[in-house]
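Example: Cytochrome b.
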Amino acid sequence: MKNQMSKLSPTTKMASNSLVMLPTPTTINYAWNMGSMLGMIMIFQIITGIFLSMHYSPTNAFDSVIHISRDVKMGIESRFLHSNGASLFFILIYTHIARGLLNMSFKKTEVWMSGNIMILILMGTAFLGYVLPWGQMSFWGATVITNLASAIPILGEPLVQWLWGGFSVSTPTLNRFFSLHFLLPFVLMGASVVHLMALHLVGSSNPMGTNSNQEKIKFSPFFIWKDAISMIVVTTIMFTMTWKYPYMLMDPENFSLANPMNTPIHIQPEWYFLFAYALLRSIPNKLGGVIVLILSIVMLMTIPMKKFKMKNSKFNPSFKMKMSMFFFSFVSLTWLGAMPMEPPYMNMSKTMGPIYFATMLI
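Written out as C-alpha cells, the predicted fold is:
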C-alpha cells in the first residue's frame, strides 16, 4: 500500500488524505450519512437521465415517454428509477435539513449556505423534469407555476412569455425546459463539491453539539462501513419502489396527454412541493402568494444570522419544541397541499402558514 501511495502525484496524495483520512468526530451516528447517500442518488439520477435523454424528444414528448416505456430495452426501469429516485432524493434531503436544524449545524455558515443553494438548484431541476412527460398535471402545473411570474409589476407579462417561448406552455417551453433539466444536475454536482470542501474546511458537527476537535478518528475505515451500509439500505428501498410500487408517488392525471382545453379538477405539483403550494394557495393576493412561496424556502438562509444563547440544542427544550412545531407544520402543509381548495383545508392552511414562518423567523 505504501509503495502504491509513493507512486501517486502530490495532488492525488493530498486529495486521498483529505477524503479518506479525514479526521471525523467519533460521536456522529447514521443521521450524518445522508450526504453520502444523496451523492449516490445524484449519480443514479444523472446516469438514468442520460439514458432517458437519448430517446426523449421535446417535439413529441408524450409519445416519446411511451416509446421509452414500451420499446426501449430497460427503458421503463430507467424511467421509474429516475422518477422514484427524485422522490427519494427529496425524502433524504428533507431529513438532512431536519438533522441540521435539530443539531444546530447551521452555525457552520459556509456549509449551510452552500447546502441551501443546492436545494434551490435541486428544486428548479425537479420542477423542470416534472414538466417533460407532458401529461395533464405536467402541463397545468407548468402553466400555474410559470404564470406566477406575471405577478411581478411591469416585467411580469413579458417575463412569462419569455419563459414560455410563446403565448402558452408549448413545444418551445419543453425545448428550453429539457435543455435546462439536462444541464442543471451538472451545476448541482459542482455545488456539491463546494459543499463538501466547505464541510472539510470547518469539520462536521456532532449529536452533543460540543467542540468536534476534542476527539476525532480517521474517516477510513471506520465511517466508510457506515456509509456502505446506508447506501445498501437506500439502494434496496429505491429498487423496491421501482419494481414493486413504481406508481406509488405518481399522479394518475399525468398518464393522460396534456390538453389545454381540459383542466384537471385539482391541480397540484409533486408531493415534495406541496408544502410551498399550500402556502401559496392560502394567500388571496397573487403577488403576496409568490413572496410567501419564495420565503418558504429562502428563509432557511436567514437562520445563521440569528443569535442563540446556547451553543447546541441537546439540552435546549425550547429550541426542540420550536423545531417540533416547524416539522409538524411542514408535514401538515404537505398534506394540505394535496387537499381541494375548500373548507376546512383552506382554513387549516391559513393557520399552519404562520406557525411555519414563526418557528423559523422568530
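The CA atoms of residues 299 and 361 lie 7 Å apart.
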